[in-house]
Each structure stands twice: as structure tokens, then as C-alpha cells.
Amino acid sequence: RTFSARSVNEVSLKFEDFNRLFVFLHLQETYRNRVWVVVDGGAMESRVIKELADKYEPSGWDREHFRQFLKHDFEEYYPAHFSNEVKMAIGEQDKKKKAELKKNLLDKVVEFSTNNQDIAKQEFQASAVELIDFLNMVKKE
After folding, report:
1. pLDDT tens digits for 8-56?
2. What DSSP state is assigned to residue 69?
3. 59-70: b or e for each residue (b if 16 or more CB lie within 10 Å)?
4. Side-chain half-sphere of 45: how many Cα atoms within 13 Å?
5. How far is it, in rounded angstroms, from Cα 46 to Cα 14?
6. Rounded distance, CA 113 to CA 75, Å?
7. pTM of the predicted model over 0.90
8. Are 76 and 104 in contact (CB under 8 A)?
9. Per-position DSSP letters for 70-101, written without gaps between them
10. Which tens digits make up the pLDDT trace of 96-124?
11. Integer Cα distance of 26 and 20 in angstroms
12. Rounded CA gap, 98 and 42, in Å?
């Protein structure tokens, strides 16, 4: 399962809430280090991840479970033929319009993926290799 903190400013708070909720589970060996905190690329995001890792590693959390993707916007992992729309969406300054552009773009990507499964799989293997590798590593662990 995944969930979004909605913004980098809420990552620490969300994780602290999550940690308190599952503190008992974390003490059980079966559940130890079964959570990954991953944020987008960026300097502020890097500080958040470092602070979380520094804070929780002494209490038994594996530092490797606090990670950062290379790209700042998730849309940058969409297939290359969406690149013009990605640039437009992430470059929009108006927050409301930006959210609308991102939602419309996501709908197009989902439709493309649904209607062109084989092509979409090949394109995502090229554009989202970092994400795929991360998810495969988590699945393996």
C-alpha cells in the first residue's frame, strides 16, 4: 500500500503519525522495517529524508528505508511522448490550474496504458526504470 503526504512539508508529520500508530507492530520482528518513506527529488525533500533517517535510525529503523527519487515531479516518469504535456503541467504557476493539468494528464496516461498495454509497458520500462527498480526491490525484500 502507498499513501501520499500531499506535500514535502507534511512528510515528517505523516510519518510520525504512522510511526505512533504502528509502534507496537514495529516491535514485532515480523513487521520490523516493513515501511518505506520515499519523497520526490529536491533540496528541501533531501533535508526531510535526512532528518527522518537521523531521527528514526537510532530506534531501529533501517536508514535505507528513507529514500528520495531523482526527479522532482512524478509526471517526469511518464512515457516520453507525454513530455510536452508534462512540461506544461509542471511549469504552470497557478496551483489550481496546475492540479487540473496534472489530473488531465494522468487521465490521458491511464487511458493510453489501458488501450495500449504492450506499448505502455515498453515505454514505462524506459521512462520509469527508477520507480520500477525501487518497487521490485521492495517486493523482493
Report:
1. 777 787 777 766 666 665 566 666 688 888 999 999 999 999 988 998 8
2. -
3. eebeeebbebbe
4. 18
5. 16
6. 14
7. no
8. no
9. SSSSGGGGS-GGGHHHHHHHHH--SHHHHHHH
10. 999 999 999 999 999 999 999 999 999 99
11. 10
12. 19
